[in-house]
Structures are given as structure tokens and as C-alpha cells.
Amino acid sequence: MNLLSLKLQDDLINQIYNKAQDLDVAILNYVLGDDTFYLDALSLFQNKDGGFGHNLYIDNYNLNSTAYTSYYALKLLYLYKNDNKQKQLMLNRVLTYLYHKAIYVNDLLIKVTSDNDNYAHSSYFNYVNEGDLSLTCGVIGLTLLSTDNKSPYNKLAVEKYQKIKNTINKINQIDLAILIAGLDKRNIKHNYTLNEDELNINNIVEINEYLAVNKELLERALNNLVLTINNNGLWDVKLNWGNNYPEQATAEIKWCFRRTVMNFYYLKKYKLVESN
Questions:
Q1: Taking the C-alpha atoms of 10, 78, 113 and 116 in order, what is their torsion angle to the nearest 10 degrees?
Q2: Residue 52 φ/ψ, nearest 5 degrees
Q3: Distance between CA atoms of 201 and 250, rounded to whole angstroms?
């Protein structure tokens, strides 16, 4: 396995500190062992209704809360663990939004609110009055993973699952992994399995945060991260929003920094970085 060199680590750290958004700097600090500012930085994206907006999910510039951006916030809260009262309050507020304020159609969450087309966004976030099965499964899974059996949100997640379980078929493999991990934690019997044909170096590292995966494929994916970093200490991100919003170019830059701190987290976690 290749290791991320000390020089590239220094370049990466300097790039993030000098050019990235506050949240990305906070994630980098978390990776380096200082979680002091992470929740403060994330809280800047949380609205009064408990949901998240403000371009936290970079491909959607909507300031207002949406279910998809709130789901992304749940992922960040789960991925970068920080167990204190501030985290619990933030978690409770976003779950309140997702279970009591977000819009459902046929027991499925709508990705974005009706005002979303007033803001720059990728075509994936065009407003449609239809529920999203994959998103709903992911929210249920992360709720079960992030709360204990006594939590009212945990019980609400189980109720939501019971209503849609017979409709779950082909969904995003990351969302399916999250759902399976949540159901397993709650000891709820199911027959779901990941589709091996849809597992690849682009999704396997994130999936492994929730379910144990093929070690060979995981090693290939991690090795690919080391091999694809640029000489400036950043990873490239290319987007195709499928529309003419000029903000796509800015989103590419933002994703470059976000992807870089997240990739650095993975490489540090699996001890694939050089050390002095």
C-alpha cells in the first residue's frame, strides 16, 4: 500500500488553512486531533427550524432547510463523532425537522423544498413533488445509528421503516448500507444485502463506515486515493450540474476542499500517511 507523503500532507494542510471554508478547516482540525471547533462550524449551517441549508451540501445553494441537506448533516455528525451536549442538541433539532417539519409524500421524504428552484443547484435538486426512497432509507438508518432505543426519534424511525419496508428495492448502495447498519443495531430482522456489482472504489470507503466490506476492494480504493492526489495536496472534483448555473464552477472549488479533508480523514484513519 502506498502512503501519503509528508510533503503532500504539509501541502494539503496549508491549502486548507489558507483557502478553504471554516467547516473544512474544522474537519481538518478534527482529523489532526482537535475537535474544539467542529460542531461550532457545522452549527452555522443549521436553521431555526432545526434543518440544514446554506450550501452545506455544496451542489445546492438553498439557504433554507431541505431534507437532503439535513441528511448530509446527519452523515457528518455520525462520521466525525463528538459526544457532548452540543452535539446532542444539534442532533435532536435536525431530527425534529426531519420527522416533524420536512415534507413527506406517501411516507417518503421530498429531497428539497418548493423554493429550491429560486437558488442555484444541480439538476439533481430540481424540485419535484415526489418522495425519495433512497433518502428516506438513509435518514431512517442514520436515526437508528445515532440514537438509542429509548429515543422518540428511534421509535419514529422504526415506524417509518415499517410503513415502507415492502417497497424497498433498488436504492443507492451507500443509503442501503446505512439502513442495514441501523436495522442491525436495532436487531430488526431483514433480508437486505448490498449488490456486489454496484460496489466500487468510488463508494466502498464510505460504505465501510457502516458495514464491513471486501478488504481487497477497500485497499484498492484507499490506494487509489493516495495515487490520485495532485502535487498541490488537493484532489480534483469535476461536476456536471446539467444546467447553466455559473455557480457550478465555484462548487467545484468548494468540493475540492471538502473532498480533500474527507479523503485525508480516511487515509489517517487507516494509517496510510507517512509520519516522522
A1: 10
A2: -115, 145
A3: 26
Q: Do the beta carbons of residue 164 and residue 107 sit within 8 Å? A: yes
104 - beta bridge partners? 109
pLDDT tens string, the chain, 276 residues long: the values are 899 999 999 999 999 999 999 999 999 999 999 998 999 999 999 999 999 999 999 999 999 999 999 999 999 999 998 888 999 999 999 999 999 999 999 999 999 999 999 999 999 999 999 999 999 999 999 999 999 999 999 999 999 999 999 999 889 999 999 999 999 999 999 999 999 999 999 999 999 999 999 999 999 999 999 999 999 999 999 999 999 999 999 999 999 999 999 999 999 999 999 998
Q: Note whether 110 and 138 are within 8 A (CB).
A: no
- The grid coordinates of residue 54 equal 446554506
- Whether the pTM exceeds 0.85: the reply is yes
Rounded Cα–Cα distance for residues 83 and 41 (Å): 16
Question: Counting beta carbons within 10 angstroms of the beta carbon of residue 74, is it exposed (0 to 12), middle (13 to 18) or buried (19 or more)?
Answer: buried
Q: What is the dihedral of CA 137, 139, 140, 145, to 10 degrees?
A: 120
Strand, coil or helix: 256: helix
How far, in Å, CA of 180 to CA of 123, rounded? 29
